[in-house]
Structure formats: structure tokens, C-alpha cells
């Protein structure tokens, strides 16, 4: 499609900022994380039916939304932590985050590990906020002055336990976040990203699809960092590919830890519409893969699963079917996802990956007119009504798709509190049977009529 044929509707896409909490073990990182994110997370989780990640989540302050990650949650968190672990934790936070909260603890004073971290943090151009935790009473504020010696300015005194001082800290975080957090697009094209563990074949796929010269149409200006979205026009498709950190900084640090794959995927996932989650057929499905899948679902992004290196697998008549069934079981409850078996090496089915990602992008935007939706779903409900609870009849009178960027459906019920998870899932499956939402997470809400 020629560019000027694209609808002139300006599209603003929020580029999510990332705040990382670093600090040695026991300074209170996870307590602070829960304080900043916990409350809101609980609300989101109860409706979305997703698993809770205790180390990564979104929060907002004065209407501005951003992500927070507790880096300690992904690293070895014991007292005999190695200097190297700390060093890597800090380096990665510097690479990936926009703002770094460096947590120290008032009662212990400055420890060797604090000094080590401060030495690294002083050298970065990223915003670093020094936070002195466990300041539970006024007297302790005096002791906090010592931390000025770390060379990172005056510390913000907080008590993560009671929450005191965290409001001021949030103000400081907002101030430090990059001003420009939305990129402007002149179009409504799919933003696709390829994610997965190291060595599954992400760069090989990118190169096979786009060639080494990469057919760049235009890089998008205005993103907070070096052009993370690049626009391509290939195979009759017009799309953006979001560069993953894994490609940028390949092999720079040991990447076998869960933390690295999570940390490196977050930004790419948040800033895309559809994520291609790549697996290595020889290695199967590991906890890191499930973590990335979970990140995709929690961010309500479209998902395509690619099982790569299919050439290395000994295949029988049912190998693909067995793989499919195995993956479906592991990825439940959200397992209505297209799965493609590729060999990038042999260029097998690689175009299908792109085509499928574009299809998922379209499905994710699908709007079902209210009358069409009710014409289908109300008879389904009549045939299989929600089971009555405590002798009470539960009636769903009416339903609709909400005008949200990702598929969400509201059901108006006399007693919404009695609709249980199995029935919610039943309705979701019925919706998926009727319309193609493959690869698209959806939310169902039950509201009082
Ligand atoms: P992490 O290892 O850095 O994630 O530290 P945690 O969040 O697990 O906290 C370590 C210990 O410090 C726990 O026993 C917390 O209850 C305690 N703690 C955290 N924040 C505070 C605080 O503001 N005041 C006090 N007195 N204790 C705290
Ligand atoms: P990334 O770290 O996920 O970007 O992975 P790479 O694209 O660098 O690939 C890692 C290794 O796997 C390289 O040696 C590739 O040549 C190899 N590889 C990639 N795709 C395939 C495939 O389909 N079959 C086989 N046999 N090897 C592959």
C-alpha cells in the first residue's frame, strides 16, 4: 500500500518507561516493589485471570504509567552473593531501564557492595535515584546523611514497610522519566517483535526474512531510545519490526539466567502489538519460555509461537501433532495460539511466520458489533446458563465488546459475583469458536446490570 493511501489518522503509541530497582540483598527491594506495584497488580490480576509476577509490573502516578522491575527478584538473592552477580545486575539495569532506583539501608551504613554498585552507577548517563530505605522514624534521617558519600546526591528517605516517603519518591521518578514517551506513527501498521531465549534463532530469522541489508523504509523518530521500531515493506506487507535487546547486545553478558531473558524481552514486548515467541525444537519448552509467554499475555499482546530448528528433529507421522498438544497443555490457560514449525536454516515456513503475525494483529483489532455479538452469545448462554449458586438464578441479560484497544467483553449480570472461573472460560472458548482470536489474549468482565 502506498504510504499516502494510509488513513491520515495519527496514531500515538505509548512507549512504556522502565524503572529498575537495584541494591544488595535485604535492603528491601521486593518490599518497595510491592509498595509501588502491589496494590494495583492485585486489582488487575483478579479480573484478567493471569498469573502474578512478583518482580515485574506496571504502576501509575499522577496519570502516568510505567513499568517497575525488582532486579533482585531475578538474581541470586542470598548473603553470599558474588560481586559478579551484582555487577551484572547493575549493568543490565543500566542497559535496559530509563530510571534506576538504587536502594541502600539506613541502619547498616555503607557496605562494600553498596560502594561497588555506586561506582558503576556513577558512570552511567542514566538517571539514578539514591533511596535510603528502612527510615522508619525521624531520628534515622540523620543517619541517612552518610550516604551522600556515595556520590549520587542526597538520598530519598523512605520506609518501604510503612510507605512513608514513597509519595515524594514517586514524584522524583516521574521527574526523571524521559519526557518523550510516545512515538508518533502516521499509520496503523503492525509492530512485531521476535522474542525468545538466546540462540533459538531470532537473528537468523530476522536476517532470513529481511536480508542483511534489511530493506529499511523509514526509521521512526521520537522514540525514547535509538529507533527501536524500523519500518519494512516486504512480501506485500508493511510492518514495523521492534528490535530486541538480544540482537543489539548479543553475547555481551552471560545470558543463561532467567533475569536476562526477562529483562531483555520486557521492553520489546511492551512496545509491540504482536510477539513472535521463538522456541528451540531441540531444547523444548523451558521455564524461561513460559516466563516470556506470561509477559506477552500480561501485556495483552498478540502471540505467535515458532518452534525453530525443526530440521534437527527426528520426525514421525505425528511429531507435529504431539508437539502441538504438548505446547497447548503447557501454555494453558491461554493456549489458543498459532504454532508454526520452522527451519530458518532451510527457509522452511518463515514467510508464514510474518503472515501469521499480521493476521493476529488484525484479529486483535477486531470489533464485533453488539447486535452480532448478542445474536450469537445469548443463545449459547441460554443453552448453558451459569450454574445457580446458593439457590440463586444467575442471569446474563446482555453483552458487548468494549471499545478498548484489545478485545474485552462485558457481560451484564444480576449477580456478577457468582460467575466463576470455569464459566468465564466456557464463554471465552465459545467466543473463540465463533470468531478468529487465535493468538489474542482477551478479557471478560461481569458487571451488575
Ligand atoms: P530485598 O532482598 O532487597 O528484596 O529485601 P526485602 O524486601 O526482602 O526485605 C528484607 C527485609 O527488610 C525484610 O525482612 C523486610 O520486611 C525488611 N524491610 C523492608 N523494608 C523495610 C522498612 O522500610 N523498614 C523496616 N524496618 N524493615 C524493612
Ligand atoms: P538468537 O540468539 O536467538 O538470535 O539465535 P541466532 O539467530 O544467533 O541462532 C543461533 C544458532 O542457531 C546459530 O548458529 C544459527 O545458525 C542456528 N540456527 C538458527 N536457526 C536454525 C535452524 O532452523 N536450524 C538449525 N539447525 N540451526 C539454526
Automatic annotation (TrEMBL):
Give binding positions for GTP 1.
23-30, 70-74, 133-136
Which GO annotations describe the biological process of this protein?
ribosome biogenesis
SMART domains, per the entry: RAS (SM00173)
Repeat recorded as keyword? yes
List the PROSITE patterns hit by this protein, alphabetically: G_ENGA
Question: Which InterPro entries does this entry report, sorted A to Z?
Answer: G_ENGA, GTP-bd, GTPase_Der, KH_dom-like, KH_dom-like_a/b, P-loop_NTPase, Small_GTP-bd
Q: Where does GTP 2 bind?
A: 196-203, 243-247, 308-311
Return one GO MF term.
ribosome binding
Task: Give the UniProt keywords, A-Z.
Answer: GTP-binding, Nucleotide-binding, Repeat, Ribosome biogenesis
PANTHER family, sorted: GTPASE DER
**Assembly information from the UniProt record:** Associates with the 50S ribosomal subunit.
Q: Which family does it belong to?
A: Belongs to the TRAFAC class TrmE-Era-EngA-EngB-Septin-like GTPase superfamily. EngA (Der) GTPase family.
Biological function: GTPase that plays an essential role in the late steps of ribosome biogenesis.
Question: Protein name, please?
Answer: GTPase Der
The scientific name of the source species is Alistipes communis
What gene is this protein a product of? Answer: der
